[in-house]
Structure formats: structure tokens, C-alpha cells
Amino acid sequence: MHSIGHGEHLNIPYFKQFLAENGIDKPIWVTEVQFQQAHQTENYANEDFAKILARSYIFALANGVGKLFYVNIKLPLVRHGVPFDERSALVRDNDDKSPLFYAHLTVAEMLGGLGENDEVEILKEMVGDTGLEPVTSCV
Q1: Is the Cβ–Cβ distance between 135 and 123 less than 8 Å?
Q2: Sign (positive/negative) of CA torsion 28, 49, 122, 110?
Q3: pLDDT score recorded for residue 23
């Protein structure tokens, strides 16, 4: 499921209810965790989003979510005429890692970071002529 701007609970309680009501017994993956930069968060800094991310991940995992995928790795300054900023991105516009990046990394390490023999899948997303470069390293 996607969770864009649903708050700290990532819409998990409602999704679990939907699955139960429809007799669906499947693992839950939140494939688009995104804390939307909207009116309700207009005064939030990257540090605020870092705190939300840590609480959201803990809540999700405690409620049976198997995988979480954070979407705002690094945002373009403008995309399709819409201005973005780096407040909810893991990597700042100048390529420095943000407090949100370190919150994400801390939770991942607490859950058991990558081991010597673990593999990392490199993803690249394309929509038409617009795309994100492959992520080759998380640290």
C-alpha cells in the first residue's frame, strides 16, 4: 500500500481493517512512505520529519508490517512546474545526508543492518523521460 500524507500511523490500522473485512491474509508492505509537505506540515523542519519517521516505522513494525519503502530520497528543486524542498528528503539538495537520513539509518541498524553476505537490490524508477538515478549505497 502507499501512504502519502496519512500521518504517523501510515494508514496501517485502516488497511489492516480492510484486509480483515475482505478475508485477505497477505503480508503488508508500505511501498511509498512519504510525509507530505502540505498545509499541516508547512512549518516542519527536516528534524521534525525525522522524529515522525522513527515513530512511524516503530508503529508499523509493531503492527505487523513486513517492509517499508521511504520515497523522498532526494527531491528535485522543481518537477513538472511544482516546487519541492528538502524538508522531507533523506538527502539534501547539496548531497549532504539529512537528520531524516540518520533517523532512517538508525532504525535500520537497530533492526539488524546489512551483513557481510547480504545483497542490496538497486532500483531505478522511470516515468516517461523523467527518472531517478539508481541508488547504489545507503551509507
Answers
A1: yes
A2: negative
A3: 96
